[in-house]
Amino acid sequence: MNIRLTPHPDTPCPAVKWIVAELERTSATTLKLHYKLAGAIGDLQLPPWAEPARTSGLWRHTCFELFLRAGAGPGYLEFNFSPSTQWAVYRFTDYRAGMIEASEALRPRIRFVASAQGLALVAEIDNLPAGASWRLGLAAVIEEVEGTISYWALSHPPGEPDFHHPDCFALELPPVETP
Known about the structure:
The chain has no helices and twelve strands. By secondary structure, the protein is mainly beta. Strands 1, 2, 3, 4, 5, 6, 7, 8, 9, 10, 11 and 12 form a twelve-stranded antiparallel sheet that branches.
């Protein structure tokens, strides 16, 4: 499944031609995401490689994001994947409420490659909730070298960029049937 992200209308980014995400639900509890970006990579501010580690504030700079709601309740998970290979995972009980760091068991494995034509980030997550359909929001925060930030998503609600908004959970993945 190939999904195109679009910039928020208030935050265009001339350096980026397009961002797409591909999803692969490899088991009832595992999701693999491939984010691909084409554009003038030299105009983007990319964080340097770092040891994979839980790190706060990744969304303030170039990073790719996943918002996942399992089942019908209001709670959801937020994943931040940095090109540095650092990561963050938060659990919310409701819209922007009850935020805590999620279990280390949800630690993603991240690979990142950049070239003159574009970049690719792959994140694989195990131990996701099984037995329910997943509502997903896919997003990216892109920082240009002069500091301008653009916000890309599968869907944008009216107003300011807000990846947590229920309208952003625009993709549904059905549960995987187990034999």
